[in-house]
Design a protein that fits this description.
By secondary structure, the chain is mainly beta.
């Protein structure tokens, strides 16, 4: 754990790279690019696919890639809301799309599932600075197209790592900014060697004190990629991962006085010493390492057929550590010396997991018909255990012994077939069928031991009509089913979810304007909506809501006003409702009727205004508005998050040199330039006041908030050679 590049990771990296240079066919760079496209063909949408999507390119990512995480970089895409525990976009960050949280966004990297198998979460903090190794990102809103991993209930997000480079090169990038934030990145690529081989890599280190007190981040990551390029064969091997140590800041802030006057206060680690003084435990941290290995083989069988085969393995191990006051000896399998029943302790809760499997597809492209057949088979094996590493009072038990040992085992197998058929010259029919089998076994999920099997059938169909080269109209209907996550099983009667997604859209494109408009209606059965509450490790709690729906309009555009001015506006107007929602208030079960689904603002809007007075200089004003939202499902005023409107200023200037470096890029990112006090996330909870004197069954409501940073700045310098 102490060394990011342990010898096992190094040996496996060399083994994978060795496999990528075991062929000797003739190189063809034109065909190489085509084979690169084939790798994402099975999971990505294009202009003939009847779904709404946005592409985020390497060039667009680079402008603001100064240390903040991938969700924050995607903040200005349609229907997107981002969050940051530390308040400045470094460390733990999250993303919501159409009101659905990150556990409902299906994420793949080169087609390989990235969501955690048990929590369904995507922890970008485990792969710091991964944006520096990404070629492109596609965000599909709604169900999207069939792919590997958990079913998409809000969106699908797929990332493609860097493509091959014809010539050798590299980058040295450093950035510094507010809250002692700094990022250091070194990249290299060999270019095509001997007409066949290319190796590229990256090392990164990010540190930040965070906006919130003690919300420090110490992040390290690596990326190593080797490729073989042949006339009909392309093999790519990757090893990447990261090590993160972050001081916990997931508690939020419930004290309204501190929220107003001491917004950076962090309750994590607080305790009272033996003299009655308030202190903070200095190692209240999350400490986790994750390493990924992928091997991809793309083969051109004929002019019409291509195949893809991939194998992957992910190793994750780490813990969060915290100080706990007045812990019961019995709860931690400790035997006290003397008559005391409680003591202060320092505990660690560990995860040790392995995830491995394969994905595959065969792609056919004819004159009028294109088809893709594919699937995947993956297995997750996770260990959950806890240790007490210190106790204030003496015990006859050994410190470090496990006080619980739990497990989670999950297998996920899916097959899919999709086709696009040109019925007539201007009309295309899209069909997509997926069958998915999931088996999940787990203990330590109170009050039951889980052993569940789910069989899902997810059909999709749609039409795309292109009356001319500039216009494109589409309609689609898709079904998605999704299993509960580990935390959901704490509700004994938890049920899987089902979604019927209807999408109607229009795309327009000419030389200077691109416009997308989309109307969606997402109808759910047993949707697992967030209650607003958190469990003891800061994970949001969800419950089945019966019938619910999301209805919305999304519009986004990119308009070149002149050769120096451009604008990229987007707006999403939506209504998200639970129907016949039941809630127990003051001891009485009530039908609240139609209520607003948690974390679902009715209005989300963004814009990027860019001015380029000179070719190497770009000045962009990035604006984001998020309307008010409820953090619970009972329309309580106590659960409301106020709307906010923030503006960032991004300046990039690239100097092309003729000596030593190809170019020098200077970047400035001023976040929240108007210094707005805003809150992008929080939590909400209710409980019965049964401990009052005299006892009462009155329902008490409470909330916590995650304040975001005011005006702050990041400045970067990149040397390209």
């Amino acid at each position: 754990m102490k060394n990011l590049f342990n010898y096992k990771s190094f040996l496996l990296s060399i083994t994978l790279l060795g496999s990528s240079i075991s062929y000797s066919q003739e190189a063809d760079t034109t065909k190489t690019k085509k084979l690169e496209e084939v790798m994402v063909q099975a999971i990505r949408a294009n202009e003939k696919t009847p779904v709404s999507f946005s592409n985020f390119t390497k060039k667009e990512i680079a402008k603001r890639n100064l240390g903040q995480d991938i969700p924050i970089l995607m903040n200005f895409l349609p229907s997107v809301v981002t969050t940051s525990d530390a308040g400045n976009g470094v460390g733990y960050t999250g993303i919501r799309v159409r009101g659905s949280d990150a556990t409902r966004v299906n994420v793949t990297i080169n087609g390989i599932p990235y969501n955690d198998s048990e929590s369904h979460g995507t922890y970008w903090v485990n792969m710091p600075d991964f944006a520096s190794s990404v070629e492109s990102i596609q965000l599909q809103r709604g169900v999207g197209t069939s792919t590997n991993g958990a079913g998409a209930f809000g969106a699908s997000l797929n990332l493609l790592t860097e493509s091959d480079n014809a010539s050798a090169g590299g980058e040295i990038s450093n950035s510094f900014g507010s809250f002692k934030t700094r990022k250091h990145t070194v990249k290299f690529n060999t270019g095509i060697l001997n007409d066949h081989f290319e190796i590229s890599g990256r090392l990164s280190k990010i540190n930040s004190d965070g906006y919130i007190d003690r919300a420090k981040s110490d992040l390290k990551s690596y990326f190593l990629q080797g490729a073989y390029i042949g006339k009909t064969t392309r093999i790519k091997a990757l090893a990447f991962g990261g090590k993160e140590i972050t001081y916990q800041s997931w508690n939020g802030l419930e004290d309204l006085d501190k929220l107003e006057n001491d917004r950076t206060y962090n309750t994590s680690g607080v305790y009272t010493d033996e003299f009655g003084n308030t202190r903070f435990y200095d190692n209240e941290v999350d400490n986790y390492q994750q390493d990924h290995y992928q091997l991809h083989w793309n083969e051109k069988v004929s002019e019409k057929w291509n195949t893809n085969l991939a194998f992957h393995y992910t190793k994750g191990k780490g813990f969060y550590e915290n100080y706990k006051e007045d812990a019961d000896f019995a709860d931690y399998n400790l035997t006290p010396v003397g008559s005391a029943t409680t003591t202060d302790i320092v505990r660690q809760k560990w995860l040790d997991n392995d995830f491995y499997g394969t994905t595959f597809s065969a792609n056919y492209k004819g004159e009028k018909l294109s088809m893709i057949f594919g699937g995947g088979a993956n297995k997750y094996e996770g260990k959950h255990f806890g240790k007490v590493i210190w106790a204030r009072l003496a015990s006859t038990s050994e410190l470090g012994d496990h006080y619980y040992d739990d497990y989670g085992i999950k297998t996920d197998v899916n097959i899919f077939a999709k086709a696009n058929y040109q019925i007539i010259e201007k009309l295309n029919l899209f069909g997509d069928l997926q069958v998915r089998n999931v088996n999940y076994k787990a203990n330590g999920v109170q009050p039951i031991v889980v052993n569940e099997t789910f069989n899902f059938f997810n059909p999709k169909a749609g039409l795309t009509f292109s009356p001319n080269e500039k216009n494109n109209l589409y309609f689609s209907y898709a079904v998605a089913n999704r299993e509960p996550k580990r935390e959901d099983f704490e509700n004994k009667n938890v049920r899987p979810e089902k979604l019927n997604d209807y999408e109607l859209g229009w795309r327009f494109a000419n030389a200077k304007t691109k416009l997308n408009a989309n109307i969606y209606y997402m109808r759910y059965k047993d949707q697992l909506v967030l209650t607003g509450a958190l469990n003891d490790v800061g994970t949001p709690i969800a419950e089945n809501s019966g019938k619910s729906y999301r209805l919305g309009l999304e519009i986004d555009a990119k308009i070149e006003i002149t050769n120096k001015w451009s604008v990229q506006p987007n707006v999403a107007i939506s209504q998200s409702k639970n129907q016949d929602f039941y809630f127990q208030r003051d001891g009485v079960l009530q039908n609240l009727g139609e209520t607003t689904i948690s974390y679902s603002p009715q209005l989300i809007a963004g814009n990027i205004l860019t001015f380029s007075p000179l070719k190497p200089l770009q000045i962009s004003l990035l604006s984001k508005f998020v309307g008010e939202q409820f953090m619970g499902n009972i329309d309580s005023e106590a659960s409301k998050l106020d709307s906010y409107f923030i503006n960032d200023l991004n300046v990039t200037y690239e100097i092309e040199t003729k000596r030593v470096f190809k170019s020098i890029v200077i970047s400035v990112l001023a976040n929240n330039v108007l210094n707005r006090k805003y809150i992008s996330n929080g939590y909400f909870y209710t409980y019965d006041d049964s401990w009052s004197n005299p006892p009462s069954i009155k329902t008490i409501e409470g909330a916590g908030y995650y304040p975001q940073a005011g005006a702050n700045i990041l400045v970067g310098l990149t040397l390209k050679f």
